[in-house]
Sequence to fold (297 residues):
Amino acid sequence: MLKGRLGLETARIPHADRHGLLWLERGELCVVDGCLHFMAGKDSLTPYIDQIPHQAVSMILLGPGSSVTHDALRLLARHGTLMAAVGTDGVRSYTAPALLPDRSDVARRQAELWGNPRRRIAVARRMYALRLGEILPHRDLDTLRGIEGSRVKTLYRLTAERYRIPWNGRHYDRAAPEATDTPNQAINHAATAVQAAAAIAVQSLAAIPQLGFIHEDSGQSFVLDIADLFRDSITLPIAFAAARKALDGAPDTIDRLVRREAAAVFRKQSVIPTMIDKIKAVLRMEEVDAAGGDSDA
Fold:
């Protein structure tokens, strides 16, 4: 994410090391000087503001008479802090973002394919076919990952040449994301933007983010699966186009250049609707619609 903006550079604390729930009501959850605050009683004679240790709690329960700003939601999302709108003393639960549509067909199909080892690897192979342009005979996930890794190195080099970008290989240090060169920073920011688009696509279909077919450990595994389908066609062109502008002397920071380029590409190429179609294709939802049930993947 964007270092220095709203405190987003701070490391995320695992939920196992956090406190539980924090109850707030009758105030505004907002960001002040890059930190989360709760402003209460601003229309009363005794207003007050508290700084909220958002990284030290697992979930914020926002009660009646409360509002939340866009920057606060962004900060909570970056640090994996959950939020739900609730009634007084938690007697009602109105929403726990993200809001989802009233459907379960995609989630049920995804869970069925994911839960069957043979069908799960079939979906993974189909994803690799979309990414690599051919159906590989291998059925071992590690082998497929190795083949893709080798081809991605070539893809980076060729795309860099197309945009006249000096390229010394892919380097990324999670502890120091800005320690890398401009092209690698651009790729990091572009990947974040495309993953956000993929998250919207997954949420819009009420698919299950945690059930990935290639990625496994992340709580956004399926989101990462879908984002990777667009690495060569969307992520890298965004990254290297922005890097080219930066190297040509554009005054903006590389993250701002990437975000502007991503916004233009998303609109022009209808990226999110295309991602929605890709999810349906990967899960072969047409089989469900045509047969009223599932066939082998």
Notes: Confidence is low (pLDDT under 50) at residues 1-10. Strands lie at 19-24, 27-32, 35-40, 48-51, 57-62, 67-68, 82-86, 93-95. The chain is about 45% helix and 15% strand. Residues 6 and 74 are 9 Å apart (CA to CA).
